[in-house]
Amino acid sequence: LSRYKVAVLGSGAWACAAVRMIAQNTSQDDPEDEFDDDVRMWVHQGGELVDTINSTHENPAYFPGIPLGPNVIATGNLAEAVADADLLVFCAPHQYIRGICKQLMGKVKPGAAAISLTKGMRVTPEGPELISQIVRRTLGVDCSVLMGGNIAEDVGREQLSEAVIGYYNLEHAQRFKKLFRRPYFRVTLLPDPVGAELCGTLKNIVALGVGMVDGMGMGPNSKAAVIRQGLLEMRDFCQALYPSVRDDTFLECCGVGDLVATCIGGRHRRVAEAWTRSAIESAVAGEGNGAGRSWAELEKELLQGQKLQGVLTSNEVQQILRTRGWESKYPLFTTINRIVNGHLPPHLVVDYLEGAKADI
Ligand code: 13P
User: Can you give the pTM of this predicted structure?
Assistant: First the structure.
């Protein structure tokens, strides 16, 4: 009997939480013995980190103190990671996926199936392209998505979490469900892959807005107002681009679930709060036009090598809104984008109708 071999492409906090669940399922809880025990994990830094993961079974760089499993085999070599793999799990920051796929062209096993855990999109002159679409187009494989309110550390600590698999191919989705589901990780299947993936992407913009509200010292009412407007704009944007996206997707864990988790406890909220405090402090001190510290600086300081997707996503989404003349229809997204880029002061996040009208 040939068993499905799994490769995880990425080694950040979410990739580590994911590989840990997969490794538990392939080694301990695989009654039908469908999966090969060993799970390969591609670590882009290679070198010392690969050796450390393989000897200690932990990733001290991005997921300290949480064992990944003895059957996780790290490699710095992308081709080696995917060699013979039947199931490919993409979990790298969205700006790197295209480059990874280009390197993988011609190296993926025919008939392999992929799933993307990456939250982000790419914008080309022809329009938006989702991560799963990049994988499908460049590698010619089916690609599902796994999305939900999944703060990596909480999943690593085995706290109840929910996810959906948005799919085109039901058989592949059912196989991926067996690969991910754990007693603490509830997975359901959703036949709206585009809606699920876009929700996971867009909610990062809203979380930046919530971090700004926190940075200004405002309380739950204001945050709830930003979250509510954010959810409306997420729905309108998804359905304007892809009319097939279903209303009820926004009530799933990939919609309101992920939005709430990220706005309460995510990195976007945290970094945006620090960014806003710094902008306000430097405005009060009359320094540097009130610009404060940069996103890149705070990302480096607060996330220790992890990448923030939302600032890039905000700029990518804004490119679409601008090109299509939709900015006034998305006042919160537009205002957040203008604040993020230093064109408006942070307090306008709660006055987004004014922010979107501002002449900048
Ligand atoms: P952050 O990137 O803000 O930590 O959000 C993580 C996430 O997507 C939770 O589902």
Answer: 0.95
